[in-house]
Amino acid sequence: MSAIVTFGDYSLIQIDRLGGERTELLGEPIPRFYAEPALRSYFLESSFGRADLVRLWSSLYGSSSSPGNLEEAFRAVFAFVGDSPVSGSPFVLFRRPEAGAPAAVAPEGTEPRSPEPPAESSTTWFEVLVVDEVGEAVPGIEIEFDAGSASGSVTTDGAGVARLEGSEVNLATAWVPDVEAALSVLEPRWAAERSGETPTGSKVFPGHLIAPFRRRSLVHKRQYTFVLHAPLLEIAAESLSFQGNHGSMKVNPDDWSAEGEDHPSPEWKRGEGDARPVSYTKGETPKAEVELSAIEERGPVLPVFLGGKQGSYAFGGDGLVRGSDSKVTIEATEALPDRVMVVKGAIDWAAEVQGNRYPAGRTEGSKIFVTLGTPETTSDNGAAITEKRMATSVELVSRARSTDPHTVVDYLMDRFNRYTLVKDPSVPAKFNQPTYYPSRDRAGSTAADGAAGCGAWPVADYIRAGAECQAIVRFTQNVIKQVGCPGEADFVLVWSEPRVENGNRALESAGRGGLNGYPSETKDGVRRYACLVDTRPEEGKIYDIEQLWLDRDAGRINPHYMGLNNFEACLRFEHGGVKKYYGGGAGVYDSPEEVITAFQALCWVSFTDEHGRRHVAPTGNRGARIEEIVKRYR
Amino acid sequence: MIVAPQALPASLLVEAEDFLAMVQGVDPASFVPLGDFSEIKDGAQVEMDSQQWCAALLQEAWGPWVDGADVERAVRPGDDSAHDLLRQCWSSDEDLKLETVESAQFLLLRAKEGSEPVLGANDNDTSLRVDAFVDRVLRRSGEFTDAFGQSTPYRLELHYHPPLADGSRFSSAPEADAVVLPHWTGRLDGGVEGGLPFFILHKKHVSGDGKMLFLAGRGWFDGSSWATYGPR
Q1: pLDDT for B125-162, tens place per residue?
Q2: B33 φ, ψ to 5°?
Q3: Angle separating helix axes A387-398 and A405-415, nearest 10 degrees
Q4: What rounded mean pLDDT belongs to chain B?
Q5: Do residue A420 and residue B230 have CB atoms under 8 angstroms apart?
Q6: Number of A:B CB contacts under 8 A?
Q7: Do A440 and B149 touch (CB under 8 A)?
Q8: Predicted local confidence at residue A116, as pLDDT
Q9: CA-CA to A8 of 20 to 30 Å: which in A59, A328, A477, B198?
């Protein structure tokens, strides 16, 4: 079996059968990675090649039969191809010297011969042209030559050429000895993106500037070109900065207070934990800027396409990697849906540079809250937009399964419909349930140690405990404003007065009003007060004003009970020309006139008789007597 | 401050007298020592209630809920003659021994034997002593928050009617009907018994719901007082 398989410009040489010939005379060893195309082409695409493949395979495996599958046979042979004569591999592919050069190896069976010296002058030369990745010559690069007694280093001249004279041999190797120095020379030209073609050819050697620089075999009296490349090994997303988002959420995912640092930008930096959430209005297309880093950072600025996947949501955009502008502006591939929701999950980044794909890291914990509009604050205590408040609001409003503001309000008022005036001991005292005013407990005392700045937000955590109507209204206002729900929402009181059209007109006020403090009057020696009653009244009858239940568990109501009221509290919501009143557990109304029908009547009531004696109800509790029915509403 | 020298009509003090008479009418021995509020069916509610109202009336350093106060607590379930009653006794200072007796409707604060008496050499002296007690122990002024979250300053000025002697009564707003007060600061009643001052706070629960709250006196301990205003 021949020690050599020769085809085209190449020789596949079985090193262990050469008997000590100087391998540098064989030509240029081709690295295994580059050898495969040439070998594959010869062994699989020509009849001579296939025959040689079968012979090599048989000799390697000691088989007298042919391989059943040529592709598998090629892989088996290729497995024995190495990078260089010194690598210990059985086969090395060489690119043969130019025609006319002395034969590198004597045919098998002959005595090996030393190469003959040139017939003319006793010395010769070797030359290297150094260019960058776009083919521009690079002066000032040190090139080391190993050429027998003439070995030494030469620095490229203004034309990028390094020439070694006075060599007595006609084969040499050359390389860049100081990669760092070469990078320093090239760096200035990499500050901005450049265009140009990367040189190729049989005498063109690409060289990545990684130490140790790969040595190249040179034949004398020929110019070879070294193309210096800065290696691009890794790309990483360094920061993420959303553009055009509301930017109003304070950093507070933990409690209901209005405390928290302002929304940061960028929302994420590598190595600093999860991303901070952002919010956009439904239908918008999120955009962001991603800063990138590269390893090696020193190198030419390159165009890059960056893609990001967040669950089923995707981003993409073009930009540059390396240099001072190493960032990409990305955009979501589709607009946010037309509903309130949250897009959440880690974003996996991948970059594409010059046809190569680089995983570029992951942004953990990213969230995009999709709202109805621009978030707003309210007049509630501690008004602010925070991450916790936004998360809760989006969660609640999303369950309404509608973007219609009235539908959303209706859902919320129906969901939080546990109205109570009773304090639940299970709710932390600092929230002052059921009022949820930090400065007002049931005593109306400002001495209470309230959770200042939480407002009615804690209602969300203690639904079963219930709350006053005004607290539920404030909570609903807070939620709808947090998600930018359009429309006007106000806490209003509805009541009537005996001295205003005899109670025929329903009165409405945002914030203050009602019958508390309404001037009493004295008639026939009896002091009487105006009240709205929720039980059908009879004039002259004394009703129990304390005890509603005879037996709460059995549901037995006290027939003598009458509830007295100063007003009905409502959320008045107006949008799209439609105005509705959401009463505290009393339904939804279209006007104050409808709201007032939550009561049976407007009456004058007394608590004492003409002698100043307190009324006592049949149950023995305190009583109120209906002195006069001013207006019946039902 | 001495006001006009006419007596306060009894009709304007009906609640105060009723409450005082209720407390004076029960046998002190009928109170049962209270170790823990869990011994009462709606004890958590009662405890919260007492804490809030004591904090409303009393300066922080003087209340029975101050950390470290050595308080003796006792309860008396209601009957035909009296509400459910919670009694708390403690010594705030060398010269001041205080007691509160409260129900769902009122809080009676009185200085007990061993405290500095308030009856002075004359009416003016007595009124000054009472005022000094008020300034020292009670929250004479401050701010309260109404049903709509608005803070309003208040100041309690007691109207004294000579002669000021044992059995005298005074009020910050005798004309205001205690049943329909918008806020407890609308009226504070008091008097002198046994040479020592007492004060009655009418517990008016502020409601942002529009509903007027009237708690039954005999449903405080079992929670039935509040059941009328529970979740609906």
Answers
A1: 999 999 999 999 999 999 887 777 778 899 999 988 88
A2: -55, 140
A3: 100
A4: 88
A5: yes
A6: 172
A7: yes
A8: 44
A9: A59
Question: Do the Cβ atoms of A47 and A117 come closer than 8 Å?
Answer: no
- Comparing CA positions, the residue from A98, A186, A76 lying closest to residue A139 is A186
**In angstroms, what separates the C-alpha of A272 from chain B's closest C-alpha?**
41
Chain B residues 136-195 within an 8 A CB cutoff of chain A = 139, 142-151, 177, 179-180, 182-185
Whether a cis peptide bond, with omega within 30° of 0, leads into A231 is no
| Alpha-helix residue ranges (DSSP H) falling in A101-215 | 179-186
**Predicted confidence (pLDDT) at residue B209 exceeds the cutoff of 50:** yes
**Residue A71 in this model has a pLDDT that exceeds 90:** no
- pLDDT at position A24: 60
Token pair 């129900």 in the structure block, residue: B103
A479: phi then psi, degrees, rounded to nearest 5 = -65, -50
Paired tokens of A462: 């203690």
Q: Which residue of A447, A511, A547 is in closest CB contact with B148? A: A511
ipTM of the complex: 0.90
Q: At what angle do helices A469-482 and A387-398 cross, to 10 degrees?
A: 100
For position A584, what pLDDT does the model report? 67
The 3-state DSSP composition of chain A as helix, strand, coil percent (nearest 5) reads: 20, 35, 45
**Cβ proximity of A141 and A185 under 8 Å:** yes
Q: Which residue of A has its CA nearest to B106?
A: A443
Q: Is A482 left (phi over 0), alpha (psi -120 to 50) or beta?
A: alpha
Of B145, B146, B209, the CB nearest to A421: B209
Q: What whole-number distance in Å separates Cα of residue B154 and Cα of residue B143?
A: 6
Which of A 561-580 lie inside 8 A of B, CB atoms?
A: 561, 563-569
Question: Which residues are A6's β-sheet partners?
Answer: A11
Which residue did the predictor score with more confidence, A452 or A500?
A: A500
A495 contact B CB<8A: yes
